[in-house]
Amino acid sequence: MLRWIHFKELYMRIFFIIGMVFVGMALLYSLFLSQQISKYAINEVNGSTAVKLNHFKNTMEITLRKLKVSSIQLYQERNIGYWLTATAKDSYLNHLIDLKIGEFLSTERLIQDVYLFNLSSREVFSAKSGPVPFDNFPDQAMLQQVVNQTMQPLNFSKVTFMGQTELTLSLPNGGIDQTPNGRLMIVLDKTFLAEDLLLSNNEFEGKWFVVDKDQNMLMGDVSASSAGDIIHAGNQWRSDGQDWGVQSITFSDEDWQLFLLSPQGIWKNKLLVLNFKVLGSFFLMIALLLVILYFLSKHNYKPLTEILGKIRMYTTGAKLSENALSISSLHTEFKLGIDTLVHRIEEQNRSLKNNDSIVKDELLRQWILSDTVGPSLREDLQQKLTIRLNKPIRLVVCRIEDYTAFCQTYNFQSRKLLKFAIQNVMEEVLRTYGLKAETSDLGSDHIVIVLSVPDTQKHSEQELLGILGDAKHHVLQWIKVAITVGCSDPIEPTENIHHIYRMTYELTEISFITGENAIYTPQDRKATYMNTPFNGLDTEQITAFIQSIRIRDTDALQRQLQQLFNQLQDLPADESKLQLIQLLYVLQKSFKQLNTPGGMVGIRSQLEPFNNLKEVHVWVEETLMNLIEQMSNRRTQKEDIFPEIVEYISNHLHDAMLTIDDIANHVNFSVNYLRVIFKEQNDISISDFILERRIEKVKELLIKTKWSIAEISSQSGFQSKSHFFTAFKKGTGMTPSQYRDEHTQS
């Protein structure tokens, strides 16, 4: 027949011959593969069932052993022993037992109830019913089993209670070999126990049940009558027209027997479907191959040659000559071209990861925390920011109120997300009023907003404060976080932004003195005591006062308080009150993250109810003692505090005035304790860590920017150029210029 078939074109002859070979080979191979799959599937089903059977058994044994251990621990509890051996009723002991059993049941979901039987007082105590006399116990038959000791101690037993079959575990008082005065009986929740077994074997699609040594069914998802038939059916069982494979195994501890039934009909149907899929996929593959082979033969690989030529042109810029490519070299050329394209795409993806928003945040932090701004930083800022840096600006600081509760409610990562949400809400509200704004999170209890003054000039001063108040209201409404807002006067971007930022932050602390819920401006500062010289205590006294709190020296603190109030008694009433307010303000600034007096908004109104200095003395002492207790609790959270310390350092690397004291104040630890916990967590000192981070930042700026070395020096947190060059040379073995030249060339 084949000799009658003749194609004029060569590609058709090649296509026909190769196509017939493909079809014959695919048909034979698919039939062979179907047979092998059938054999393999049967073996896999049997092996899988055996594995699941062992898994079921191990899960059940582990669960029952854990229940025994938990029950023995409860049985050995002191108050349980007192109750079991008590000769008279004791309501207080009943209360203790009720609490203990309730605590036990809250941690053991597989236990339905706990019963205590006191043979001396003839009383039963259960978690659900409490103490009940023997005569009032609802199931006297079960009670007699307990009294007559027919249940084997430390073994699970099948007991009929209130018409329901339950699994119980009993323990005698005084030990197994002694005459007990009482018993403790645990009643298991078979429903939850079955759920645990199924959850741990969630891929099992069959049925299962458990019988005791007398072949009485204990639990499972088949009926008791069916269980008897299955036990005597052997390895196969048929029910409702469906075949089931039966396998069983015996528990070593309880002498129970576990039966697993795997549905063979489902596997047979799946196997049949799989065979059809194999045959269908092979024929589909052959059809596709024939189509591909036809076009390859017809066009003599011309389309592939054209594609490869375009890839060669794109990757190397050189044309692919018609004679340079052979069929044998086609795969190599394609692989080389595709690998080159993939490499190009990966390089582009890596460059895209340098996200504009991340770069903008970093530049904003450098600007806000630096005393001076170089031309390169200003140029980069202008490219990233929506506001113009040749026009006046305003700084707005939004400080989170009650930061203590905020830190206690949310962990470090959640706090970062919430502050990010506050930034978005503030930006969105300001944008609705036509204001351009840029926000930055400096890693503390506040965010900073930079407003464009030309936009704000469209509104009066009162309108601007109203807009900020509206934004503050939306933050409270949407994020459920209260904030205090301070707004600076218009300033030039060339001014010392760092100083203006610190002054604006202090505006948010006016609420500590006034207690008013307002938007604070520099004019509000003049109406408070914040600018009044503090003459009540000298600097050494204040430092000693704060240090006593940080090191938790209550004796020294009490002495210093007594000395302070002795001084206040010699002053006029108004002067005494002023000095006291200023002292509490200093404490609020030093311990703003904890529940210090700074947490009480409106300190003047807080002092009004006190009749004399003695009452104020008692109140301040109690508040500071509570502060010391909070700091002691906070010291136990070293692992949670460490990421916050690292982020604070990263956000303030550009600040040349950053000190270990600043970091200690941020987390409210003493400097010595901060050094200890940082060394424990990071294996290097905090000073070395800051220096390493600054050097890494300098390396990044040298490679990725065209900033001058002098500008990099001023923006990387080093206090002097000599310190910058010395530290970089020591850390890298090269000068900054040498490092830039070497890595730019490479």
From TrEMBL:
InterPro entries: Homeodomain-like_sf, HTH_AraC, HTH_AraC-typ_CS, Tscrpt_reg_AraC-type_HTH
Xref: SUPFAM superfamilies: Homeodomain-like
Keyword Repeat: no
Listed GO MF terms: DNA-binding transcription factor activity; sequence-specific DNA binding
Keyword terms of this UniProt record: DNA-binding, Membrane, Transcription, Transcription regulation, Transmembrane, Transmembrane helix
Keyword Coiled coil tagged: no
Residue ranges of the TM segments: 12-32, 278-296
Domain HTH araC/xylS-type: 643-742
Pfam families in the cross-refs: HTH_18
Protein name: HTH araC/xylS-type domain-containing protein
